[in-house]
Amino acid sequence: MATPDRPGFVLPLLLLAGFRTLIDDLHAELARQGHPDLRPVHGFVLQAVGVAGTTASELGQRLGVSKQAAGKTVDRLVTLGYLERADDPADARRKLVRLTDRGLDGLRRSAVIFDQLRDRWAAALGTDRVAALEDDLRTVALPNFFRLDVPGWFGA
């Protein structure tokens, strides 16, 4: 039950602050490791492209944004060397967006850094408390908690 010293609106703000802390720390480390141009939204895009690649239309649907918005982000990530456009071998009329080696490297490094950040939280809070926090969030979160449409949900 919410109380004056723990009003209900604080919980989502604390969850967002925790998320923001992890993402900011991730991107600071990615920058140190040679990926200074990656931004938080780029991680969702790289995940949505996936190892098989996708079209700009499909990417927009996965991200919950328009094809045009997805295309602008793809243009930026192509310029930065994280994505490439290629002919679809199954349909010459379609263009695929695919991860480059640099894009794959950014994703791999992100996974390792997230493990390190989780370990840092476990060192600060205790392994059991971090595991309990994860379990509790799984209990109250939607079953499909890993969604790539966060950019569209935020109105990007």
TrEMBL record:
<keyword id="KW-0238">DNA-binding</keyword>
<dbReference type="InterPro" id="IPR036388">
    <property type="entry name" value="WH-like_DNA-bd_sf"/>
</dbReference>
<dbReference type="InterPro" id="IPR039422">
    <property type="entry name" value="MarR/SlyA-like"/>
</dbReference>
<dbReference type="InterPro" id="IPR000835">
    <property type="entry name" value="HTH_MarR-typ"/>
</dbReference>
<dbReference type="InterPro" id="IPR036390">
    <property type="entry name" value="WH_DNA-bd_sf"/>
</dbReference>
<feature type="domain" description="HTH marR-type">
    <location>
        <begin position="1"/>
        <end position="142"/>
    </location>
</feature>
<dbReference type="GO" id="GO:0006950">
    <property type="term" value="P:response to stress"/>
</dbReference>
<dbReference type="Pfam" id="PF12802">
    <property type="entry name" value="MarR_2"/>
</dbReference>
<dbReference type="GO" id="GO:0003677">
    <property type="term" value="F:DNA binding"/>
</dbReference>
<dbReference type="GO" id="GO:0003700">
    <property type="term" value="F:DNA-binding transcription factor activity"/>
</dbReference>
<protein>
    <submittedName>
        <fullName>DNA-binding transcriptional regulator, MarR family</fullName>
    </submittedName>
</protein>
